[in-house]
């Protein structure tokens, strides 16, 4: 299966949401997983690996921004 086909299937899963497909994950869950992966990689000896270092550089601002937004949403939610 090509990368384009996999990307299209992933996009469709996200657009359909949990209501149409019980096995799909919510966007919030995927973001939580991304933050968790970032945190685990940043405190791991693996962070010296080239690809892990590139992921950490890519995810640094994204992770910080997501954490701030998620805390703000938690403060607003009843």
From TrEMBL:
InterPro entries membership: Rho-assoc_Ser/Thr_Kinase
GO terms classed as biological process: actomyosin structure organization
Organism: Astyanax mexicanus (Blind cave fish)
Protein name: Uncharacterized protein
Keyword Coiled coil: no
GO cellular component: a single term: cytoskeleton
Gene Ontology MF: a single term: protein serine/threonine kinase activity
Gene3D superfamilies: Phosphorylase Kinase, domain 1
Domain of life: Eukaryota
Entry coiled-coil feature ranges: none
Annotated keywords: Kinase, Serine/threonine-protein kinase, Transferase
């Amino acid at each position: 299966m090509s990368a384009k086909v996999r990307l299209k299937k992933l996009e469709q899963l996200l657009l359909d949401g949990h209501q149409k497909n019980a096995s799909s994950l919510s966007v919030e869950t995927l973001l939580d997983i991304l933050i968790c992966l970032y945190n685990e990689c940043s405190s791991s000896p693996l962070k010296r690996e080239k690809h892990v270092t590139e992921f950490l550089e890519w995810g640094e601002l994204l992770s910080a921004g997501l954490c701030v937004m998620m805390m703000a949403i938690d403060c607003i939610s009843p």
